[in-house]
């Protein structure tokens, strides 16, 4: 007997009715989980700043840098990697709601730029590029868990057909709702949650003595190695990817994994190097 899971969850929590000519505005699980990632991430950084004796006054500035760099990077990355024609024809779509389309590789690039700008002005406080980035990987891992669960609630980024008993039939996905499929979003969400605990264990063990770049390296290798493998279980996001042995997500994951390996090796050779 074939068993599977019927996934009929609505992507919307509730709808704010029309008021004074504006609306109605649907409140979606994805948006709530995306915001929750930032809110909990901020509390994690407050805890770290307290434990390592850093000024809590910098938390608001760091949060602002992260929100802007992640959202702008993820949006630009989506259009650059998957819809370049839209970016050039209608660039305003990058900043206009409903923000459908966020690329994790673009978020990484945006984050690197944002953290470089942030750390430049706070080098004297010990908040070098790697000090900040290592600790923020905790929030990135937890945020990735929430975002991928948001994808599940949206019934998007679905997997390929499967006869495994935990296959999902996505009732709200009109293109892929006929047969059970891998819940690839759930795989990635759980993987990110496990990574969060691994990174927290590393930080809790070393705290201020955490080897520079170690947590960044572990994050990159873990996330993008699994991303590369999970892509074999997922439907392509864009039609052009069907013409290649690897899809865009896999091509972009390879340099991220290699960079992560480099950071791990580097952290072992220069564990306390203070690099901006």
Features:
single chain; 276 residues; mainly alpha; two-stranded parallel ribbon; two-stranded antiparallel ribbon; 8 helices; 57% helix; 5% strand; globular
Write a structural description.
The chain is mainly alpha-helical and 276 residues long. It has a domain at 5-55 and 131-269. The protein contains 8 helices and 4 strands; from the N terminus they run βββαααααβααα. The protein has helices spanning 29-51, 58-81, 84-89, 104-120, 129-153, 184-206, 214-230, 248-269; strands at 5-7, 12-16, 25-28, 168-170. It has a two-stranded parallel ribbon. A two-stranded antiparallel sheet has the order 2-3. Strand 2 (12-16) and strand 3 form a beta hairpin. Helix 1 (29-51) packs antiparallel against helix 5. The termini are far apart. The model has no long low-confidence stretch (mean pLDDT 87). Keywords: Cell membrane, Lipoprotein, Membrane, Transferase, Transmembrane, Transmembrane helix. One of its GO terms (biological process) is lipoprotein biosynthetic process.
Write the layout of secondary structure elements.
Elements: E1 5-7, E2 12-16, E3 25-28, H1 29-51, H2 58-81, H3 84-89, H4 104-120, H5 129-153, E4 168-170, H6 184-206, H7 214-230, H8 248-269
Parallel strand pairs: 1-4
Antiparallel strand pairs: 2-3
Helix pairs in contact: 1-2, 1-5, 2-4, 5-6, 5-7, 6-7, 7-8
Give me a quick take on this structure:
The chain is mainly α and 276 residues long.
Major sheet size, sense and barrel closure: 2 strands, parallel
Strand order of the largest sheet: 1-4
Classification by helices and strands:
mainly alpha
Question: Helix content range of the residues, please?
Answer: 55-70%
What's the shape? globular
- Strand-residue proportion: 5-15%
Q: What is the tally of helical segments? A: 8
Tell me the series of helices and strands, N- to C-terminal: EEEHHHHHEHHH
Mean pLDDT: 87
The termini sit apart by 59 Å
The low-pLDDT segments are none
**Counted beta strands:** 4
User: Which value, in Å, is the CA radius of gyration?
Assistant: 20 Å
Protein name: Phosphatidylglycerol--prolipoprotein diacylglyceryl transferase
Enzyme class: transferase
Binding site for a 1,2-diacyl-sn-glycero-3-phospho-(1'-sn-glycerol): 148
Membrane topology: Multi-pass membrane protein
């Amino acid at each position: 007997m074939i068993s599977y899971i019927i996934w009929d969850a609505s992507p919307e929590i509730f709808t704010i009715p029309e008021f004074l000519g504006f609306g109605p505005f649907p409140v979606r699980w994805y948006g709530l989980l995306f915001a929750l990632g930032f809110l909990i991430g901020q509390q994690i950084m407050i805890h770290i700043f307290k434990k390592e004796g850093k000024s809590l006054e910098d938390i608001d500035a760091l949060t602002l840098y992260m929100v802007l760099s992640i959202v702008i990077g993820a949006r630009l990355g989506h259009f650059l990697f998957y819809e370049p024609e839209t970016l050039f024809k209608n660039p305003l779509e990058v900043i206009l709601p409903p923000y459908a389309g966020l690329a994790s590789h673009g978020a990484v690039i945006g984050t690197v730029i944002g953290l470089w700008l942030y750390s430049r002005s706070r080098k004297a406080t010990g908040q070098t590029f790697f000090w900040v980035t290592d600790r923020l990987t905790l929030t990135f891992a937890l945020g990735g868990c929430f975002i991928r669960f948001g994808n599940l609630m949206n019934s998007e980024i679905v997997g390929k057909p499967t006869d495994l008993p935990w296959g999902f039939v996505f009732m709200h996905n009109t293109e892929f709702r006929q047969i059970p499929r891998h819940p690839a979003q759930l795989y990635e969400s759980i993987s990110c949650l496990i990574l969060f605990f691994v990174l927290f264990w590393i930080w809790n063990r070393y705290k201020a003595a955490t080897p520079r770049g170690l947590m960044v390296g572990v994050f990159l290798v873990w996330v993008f190695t699994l991303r590369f493998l999970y892509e074999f279980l997922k439907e392509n996001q864009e039609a052009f990817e069907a013409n290649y042995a690897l899809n865009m997500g896999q091509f972009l994951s390879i340099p991220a994994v290699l960079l992560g390996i480099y950071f791990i090796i580097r952290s072992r050779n220069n564990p306390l190097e203070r690099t901006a």
